[in-house]
Amino acid sequence: MVKVKCPTCKKVFEYKSSKWRPFCSERCKLIDLGHWVSENYSIPSEKKLTDEELDQAEKSKKDE
Ligand SMILES: [Zn+2]
Question: Largest alpha-carbon pair distance within the chain?
Answer without folding.
Answer: 72
